[in-house]
Amino acid sequence: MAVKVFISYAHKDEQFKDSLVEHMSGLVRANAVSEWNDRKIVPGQDWSDEISENLASSEIILFLIS
Fold first, then answer.
1. Residue 66 pLDDT > 90, yes or no?
2. Rg (CA), the chain
3. Measured between alpha carbons, how far is 63 from 19 in angstroms, rounded to an integer?
4. Structure pTM?
5. 58, 3 in Cβ contact below 8 A?
6. Cα–Cα distance between 64 and 61 in angstroms, integer?
7. Alpha carbons 36 and 61: distance in angstroms, whole number
8. For labelling, which of 39, 40, 59, 66 has a CA lying 20 to 30 Å from the CA of 12?
9. d(C-alpha 33, C-alpha 25), whole Å
10. For 23-37, what is the mean pLDDT?
């Protein structure tokens, strides 16, 4: 079962988040990890609830600090 990773970042640093997601792609394909970030929120969803639910259900939380 994949370890769920929550990625928190400032939108001005989205390029660094994208680079991290790209580096993690092999682990995602191998089903070792699944990653979540706020860009996965679908329009019309309650963004606050989505963030809270994914934060609570993640086993690892990564903070990208600029």
1. no
2. 12
3. 14
4. 0.90
5. no
6. 10
7. 10
8. 59
9. 9
10. 97
The pLDDT of residue 38 is 96
Let me know: does 35 contact 8? Beta carbons within 8 Å. Answer: no
Cα distance between the two ends of the chain: 31
Residue 24 has what pLDDT?
Answer: 97
Q: Which 3-state string (H, E, C) describes the chain?
A: CCEEEEEECCHHHHHHHHHHHHHHHHHHHCCCEEEECHHHCCCCCCHHHHHHHHHHHCCEEEECCC
Closest CA to 2 of 57, 63, 50, 62: 57
**What percentage of the chain carries pLDDT values higher than 70?**
100
Q: What is the mean pLDDT of residues 46-57?
A: 97
Cα 29 to Cα 57, 58, 63, distances in angstroms? 20, 18, 22
